[in-house]
Specification:
Largest sheet: 2 strands, antiparallel
Number of helices: 3
Radius of gyration: 19 Å
Helix content: 55-70%
Shape: elongated
Distance between the termini: 15 Å
Number of strands: 2
Strand order of the largest sheet: 1-2
Structural class: mainly alpha
Order of helices and strands: EHHHE
Length: 97
């Protein structure tokens, strides 16, 4: 069972906002060719995706299905998410020894 810490989404969004402000200031002061704001935005987008445990469960299911189709299921152990108990903030999977 994986349970998301209460309030973590708000904390991460605050941190990303502060990183974005720093990126804007740094980009102006240092006059770099790299678009630091776009990098922070892309990073933030991917990080927020990671907070959705239902997405993680679907990805785990897809990985297991792909491994089975490739004949790798005998040599590659994957967890099986229990979708009826999984939400965006709680991930429940089978036990793997």
């Amino acid at each position: 069972v994986k349970i998301q810490r209460p309030g973590i989404r708000a904390q991460i969004c605050t941190d990303l906002f502060l990183l974005r402000v720093m990126a804007m200031a740094g980009q102006q002061v240092l006059q770099l060719d790299t678009d630091w704001v776009a990098l922070v935005d892309e990073y933030g987008s991917r990080l927020v995706d990671e907070l959705d445990f239902s997405l993680e469960a679907r990805t785990a299911q897809e990985f297991a299905e792909n491994a089975a189709q490739l004949g790798l299921d005998a040599s590659c152990t994957t967890v099986q998410p229990i979708m009826q108990l999984t939400t965006s903030r709680v991930l429940v999977t089978s036990w793997v020894d």
